[in-house]
Protein 1
Amino acid sequence: MFDALNEQQSLAVSHRGSPLLVVAGAGTGKTKTLAARVASLLDEGVDPNRVLLLTFTRRAAAEMVSRVGATSTERLATQVWGGTFHSIANRLLRNFGQAAGLSPSFTVLDSADTVDLMGLVRTEEGFGERGKRFPRKETVANIYSRMVATQAKLDDVLETDFPWCADHGDDLRVIFGAYTNQKRAHEVLDYEDLLLFWRALTTSRVGDKMRQLFDHILVDEYQDTNTVQADIIRGMCSPTTQVCAVGDDAQAIYGFRAATVDNMWNFGDHFPGATQITLEQNYRSTMPILAVANGVLAQSDVHIAKELWSSRQGGTRPVLCTHYDEGAQSTFVAESVLDARERGVDLQAQAVLFRAGHHSAGLELELTRRDIPFVKFGGLKYLESGHVKDLLALLRMLENPSDQLAWHRVLATLDGVGPATVRRVCDELGVASEDHDAVTRLVDGAGRFPTAAEAQVAELRRSMGVCLGHAGPVGASLAPAQQIDVLRGFCELVFPNRYDNAAARIADIDELAATAGSYSSRSQFLAELTLDPPGKTSDRAGPPHLDDDWLTLSTIHSAKGLEWNAVHVLHAADGNLPSDMALGDKAGMAEELRLMYVALTRAKDELTVNFPLRFHVHRHANDDRHVYAQISRFIEPVRHLFDEQAVDLDAPLEPHVDLDLVGAAVTDEVDAMLTALWD
DNA sequence: AGTAAAAGGTTTTTT
DNA sequence: ACCTTTTACT
C-alpha cells in the first residue's frame, strides 16, 4: 500500500534520529506519509504504546490509525496513542494530574458549558448599568479563551481584538475571577486548562515520568499549534525522544485560536539539529486548478518556499461565476451540483465551501426545496442547540448530582421558575453538598416549586426516579437510550413553552436516543459526546439518513485536510472572503488569503468560484438592505486563469420602485376601509 | 420580589 | 434566529 511513495515521502518515512520537520504542501500525500512513518516504526518493532500521534481532530486520528492498521496488524495500530492535544491531555491528566492537585475524576467543560458558566456567573455578579449593553456570553467566553491562549493581558486583548468591549474591562475581571473560582470549586477543567495543566506537569516532579512514556512523537497540522502546544511538545521530549512534525505554513488558518506559524518557522531553533523535508508533488488536483491556487498563494509575502506541481496536466479550467445576488448563486450551485451528478460525479464527491456558517443559509433552503440531501459541517453544532443541551443536562444531573450547571439549566426550563427560584431550590436540595444525593432528595419530594410548575415537577421527579433505577440497586439502572426515552416525557411537557418548533426538537431527542443505543454506560456516552461531538446539524430537512448519497456543505475551516472531485466556493466577495472583520489587519488579511488557498486546493477535478454581486448587509436580514460587492481581492489577480460565466446579471425585479408604490396605494385603500369601521 | 413578555441589538472561523 | 435589556404583570 505504501510502495508508491515518492523520493521525499520515503525520506520522511525512513528518517531517524534528528528532529524532523516535513513541510507538506496541499495534496502532497501528507496523511499517507505520516501513516507510513508510523507503520514503518511498528514494523521495526517499536512498541505502539510508546508512539504519540497528535492530530488536529479526532477524525484525523481515527483515519490515521485505520490507515496504519491496513499495513501493520490492526491490533498494534490501535495501541498507538492517537488523538488531539486536548484528548491526550485529558488522558494524561487522569494519571498524572494528582501531582498538580487535580482530582482524577475531574470533568471537562466543552465550549458550550464554558459559555453557560460565563452566563451564570455574570448574572450572579449582577451587572447591567442602565443603557450600557453588556457583551453576549459567547463573546465573554471568546475574550477569555483568547486571552488565555495567547497569554496576553486582558487590556491588550480587548484593545486589539475586542475594541467594542473595552468599556467592560473591570466587569470582565470580576467575571473571570468568579468563573475560575467556580471551576476550581467543582473540579472542572475547560479546554484551555487541559493544555495549561499538561504543560505545567512537564516541568513538575512527574515530568520525567511523562517523558519516559514515549519514544516517538508525531504532530500533524503543526502550523495550527499555538505557543502552549509547542511548549508541550518540547516539554515531552527527553534527549532520546524522536520528534516529527508535519505541516504547511501556507495553510495556517487558526490564528484566531492563537495558533502561530512561528512554531514552524522556528522549528530549527526549538529543536536543534532538525532536518527539513519538503513535499511539493501534488497528487490531488489538476494543473489548471493548481495554477489558480499557486497564483493566490503568490500574493502572500512570506512562507516556506514551495511551488506545487502535478502530473495531471489536463482537465477543465476552473470556472469563475458572477451572479446577480445570493439567490441566483444558490440556484446556480444547486443546478450545477445536479448537473455534475448527471455526468457521474456522486454527491459524495462534491462539496460546497464557504467562509462563515451562515453563508450557506440560502443554499440550504434551495437544496431542501429540491430534495437534494446534504450534510453541513461547521457552523452551529448539533450539541450546542438548546434542546439537546436540555436533555444532556438531565443526564448529567443523574451522572453527577452536584453538577450545578446542569441543575440550573433543567430547573430554569420550568414554568414560573427564574434565577431566584433556581438558587433557592438548589440550596434546599443541597446540590453543592458533598453527598451527591440531591437528585434522590428531589425524587423523594424535596424542594418547593411554584404552582405553575406542579405538573412539570411531578414528571421530572417521576422520570428521574425511573432513571435512578429505584427498583433495583444503584448502577443496575436502565441503558442510556432507555433513559433518554424516559426523559423524553419531560421534554414534551417543557419544550412547547420554550421553543416554537417543539415537534422537530423532540424528533432530535429521538435521534439522540438512537445514537445512545450503542452505549451501555451513561458516563461513557456523555464523555464520548463531549470529546467527539457529531458535527452535523440535523434539524433541517437535510439528510433523511445515512443510506443515501449526500452533498457536503462545510466551512473552509472544517474542510481542512479533505478533498472532493468537484468543489464550489461561495461568496468570493470582498467582505465575505476576505471577511470584513479582517480588513485593515495585516496578519488577519494574510490568514484570509490562506483560507482562500485552502478552499481552492480541496478540489481534484472541478472547481467553481462563485461571486454574487450583492449581498445583505445584516447577517440575519429580514429586510432587503444590501450592498454591491467587489470580487474578492485574492481572485481578481488570477482572473485570467478562470473561464468566466455570468448568470442572470439583470435584476429579476427591476421595477422595484413601482411595486412599492402600488403596495403603498393598496395598503392605503385597505386601511381607509378599516378605519371607516370605527370612525 | 421575581417572572414573563415585548422591545431592541447583533462582529467569523473551533479543539 | 438568539441574546440582552426593559417593561409590565403577578
Protein 2
Amino acid sequence: MVRNRAICSALDGTELEALNAIGRERKLSPGESLFWEGEDSVIVANVLDGVLKLASNTEDGREQIVGIVYPSDFIGRPFDGTSSHGISALTDARVCVFNRSDFDRFAAEHPQLEHKLLERTLGELDRTRRWMLLLGRKSASEKVSSFLLEVFERMGVTKGCELRFDDAPITLELPFSRQQIADILGLTIETVSRQFTRLKAAGIIDLPSRRGLRVLDRAALEAEAG
Amino acid sequence: MVRNRAICSALDGTELEALNAIGRERKLSPGESLFWEGEDSVIVANVLDGVLKLASNTEDGREQIVGIVYPSDFIGRPFDGTSSHGISALTDARVCVFNRSDFDRFAAEHPQLEHKLLERTLGELDRTRRWMLLLGRKSASEKVSSFLLEVFERMGVTKGCELRFDDAPITLELPFSRQQIADILGLTIETVSRQFTRLKAAGIIDLPSRRGLRVLDRAALEAEAG
DNA sequence: CGGCAATTTGACTATCCTCAACAGGGGTGG
DNA sequence: CCACCCCTGTTGAGGATAGTCAAATTGCCG
C-alpha cells in the first residue's frame, strides 16, 4: 500500500524489480539515526513504515525539527552529497535504503520516477513554507493548535482513511514526545505543556495518556490556530 | 548569463527556441504582484533579473516571507494548480512567464529539464529548512547576523563573482526595506532596527545609507550568528 | 511496588513586542 | 536652489509573552 503512494508507483513490474535489486530494507528503533547532520549523505531512502524526523541543530545544542517523514515519503538528497540536517526515527520504522549513486543512475534512466520525485519535492517545499509562517509569526497557542490539526490530518491520511471529526472523537497516539513537539514548534517543553493543559481545561482536547490525544472540539481548535 | 544557471541550461538550441516560443517576458515594478496567495497559479516563471519575495500571510495581516528569489531561479508550482503563497517583486524585475499547462507539457517531453528543476527544488528545500532553524531557535541578534551573512553570499554569487570579505569592505545595496527584513526573520521592524544600530555601534557593520550596508568585521558577524 | 524519566506546575526573568514620538533624507513644488 | 512634506527608519518607555530554573507529580516499566 506504500507502493501506491510512493514514487515507485511510477514504475511497472520489471522496473520495480530492478529498483528493488539495488535497495535493501532496514529497520530502525526510536531515536536511531539514519544519518547525521553534516555527514556526507551517501544514501537515500523510502519510508515503508513508521515516522522519522529531520532536524537541524545549532552549535550550542538547540534543535529545530525541520521535517517529519511518514510512510511513502522519500528521504535524502539525490544528485548531491551534502545534507544539511540529520534524520532519525521517532517510532519503530522500516525504510528501503539505496546507495545514492545507484539511485542517481537508476533515476537518470527512469524519467517517470524523477517526475514523481519532483512532484513530491514540490509538495514538501510548499508544506515546509507553510510551516515557516507558523514558526515566524504565530503565538504559542496558535502554534500548538495548528500543530494538532496538522498532525490529525497527516495521521489520518497515512492511515488510509479520512478521520471524521464530527463522529465520536478518535483517540490518537502521537508519535512525538513533548520535547519533540517543542522542537517542531520552536518553543520550550514547558510552554508546550502549559498550552496542552490550557486546551484540556478549556474542554477542547483530552489527554487520556502521556502521548494520547483526543480532539473534542475541532472548531475551537481551528479558531485558536489563527 | 542567466541561461547558464537557470534550468534551461539543460536544453540545446532547438529546444530552447521551442521553450521561448511558449514563454513571454514580463516586467515588474517593486511591490507589484506576480500572483497572490491562494489564487490558482496558472503560470510558472523564470527570473531573468531582479529580486522577488514569496510570502504567506495570516488572516489578521501578519506576514512571513518564506522565500527570496534571485535571477535564474524558478518560481511557481508546476503540475498542481494550488499555490500557498503570493509572489511579488522587491526590485524592478524581469521574468519569463509560462502558461502552466504549456510548461507542464513541455517538461513532460524534456526529462533533462525536469531533472534540472528537481535539483533546483531539492536545493531550495534544503535552504528553506536551514532557514527554519533560524526562525524557530535563534535570537534576534543571531537572526540579523545570519541574515546579513546569507544576503552577502547570495548577492555575491548572483553578481557572478565571489565577494572577498578580506579585501576592502564592499558596500552592498540591500533589496529589502527594514519591514521586509523583519518579515523575513520573524521579528518586528523595531527589533531589526535596534539590532542594526547595535551592530553599527559595535563597529561590525556600517550603514552608509538607508539600504546600504558594509560589513567591516565578518568574523564578529559570524560569531554573532550562532 | 519502586525507580526513573517524562511531564507538569510554579515563581521569576529576559527578550521581544507594542505604542508613541522623533529624526532624517529624498523628492517635489515653489 | 531651497523649503517643505512624507515616508521610512530610529529611539524610548512600558508591558506581555515565552523562556529559565527549580520542584513536584505522574505515568510507565520492570
